[in-house]
Amino acid sequence: ESYDMGGHDTYMHKEIAEQADAVDRVLRGRIDDRFSTVHLGGLNLDAREARGVRRVKILGCGSAYHTGLIGAQLIEELARIPADAEPASEFRYRNAVVDPDTLYIAVSQSGETYDTLAAVQELKRKGARVLGVVNVVGSAIARETDGGVYVHAGPEVCVVSTKCFTNTAVAFALLGLHLGRIRDLSVADGKRIIAGLRKLPAQIAEVLAEEPAIEKLAADYADAKSMMFVGRVRGYPVALEASLKLKEVSYIHAEAYPASELKHGPLALIEPDVPSVAIVPDDDLLEKNRATLEEIKARSGRILAVAHQEQEKADHTIIVPKNEVELDPILMGIPLQLLAYHTALALGRDIDKPRNLAKSVTVE
Ligand code: AGP
């Protein structure tokens, strides 16, 4: 892609629209149907080393941290390695114990975020194995890490991340699949995930075709005083990212909580002009999520659900196509990028350059 706007009014819109092609690119040449796995040429981690990994710790900032949360779940589900994610900025300041059996992964679009780079340098100084999941080829983080997976989202110009977020989540699915097939993921599950990954570009196009309906919803929700985003397990990082995106471009205050945490405090905020966005995938937590919708409705809160089927308790449901449950977060975030975009547009915001923000934070 060039830096040309390509007929779009903003880079954010252009980059949202490019996601089917971008995902196609991150998959291209990497799938190995013969062994139901993927090839990740730059990983620099052989099968024996991969089997020796006892934990995975993912580090990044902002949207990159949120994709790290999705990545940790994918690695834990597919490779059955305990995995978690932490903001790189917190990690570097807390004198963390560096464990030789842990595989550290730095995530970054730009590859230049200072806090993430500093975390990598500290880890390297202490002898850790650090991989990168990075978009910009040859960037500082790509150079400092021992190997990794390029995200191949293409240039991302808008300050808020959209296509790179999605592609990074797909890159983590590839990494989870690769590690899983070296460890205990079956051939059948490998095939199932590969088939799911292959469906993604067409399903992204289906989600993007819902834009006119999402534009109307954005007009309905643009008068909100604040918004609450909730999700459980796979839905929680989607809620976090959607809330960040709305804040960044529309300046509407938003909070994101794991759905089960609502009753431990934030439920006090729910009232008619504080609508909620609920991530409701058709997974084993569907009934639990429906109970959350009832909890919100009982406090007169408006609800917009992102789901695989119409949600009776919600005022509006955006339906996304069904894929394999592990891949749900990848598709469910996309309509909420459009929601943030159209809300910001309705409010007349400077979408590509939100106030007070820079594309990459290269200072402390
Ligand atoms: C993207 O929406 C954000 N502006 C921001 O949170 C960003 O993800 C963060 O600063 C990390 O940037 P990086 O991916 O380039 O490291």
Automatic annotation (TrEMBL):
Its main location: cytoplasm. Keywords: Aminotransferase, Cytoplasm, Glutamine amidotransferase, Repeat, Transferase. It catalyses: D-fructose 6-phosphate + L-glutamine = D-glucosamine 6-phosphate + L-glutamate. One of its GO terms (molecular function) is glutamine-fructose-6-phosphate transaminase (isomerizing) activity. Residues 45-191, 217-354 form the SIS domain. It is found in: Cytoplasm. Catalyzes the first step in hexosamine metabolism, converting fructose-6P into glucosamine-6P using glutamine as a nitrogen source. Its EC number is 2.6.1.16. It comes from Streptomyces celluloflavus. The active site is at K359. Homodimer. The chain holds residues 246 to 609 of 609 of the full protein. It is an enzyme of class 2 (transferase). The lineage of its organism: Bacteria, Bacillati, Actinomycetota, Actinomycetes, Kitasatosporales. This is Glutamine--fructose-6-phosphate aminotransferase [isomerizing].
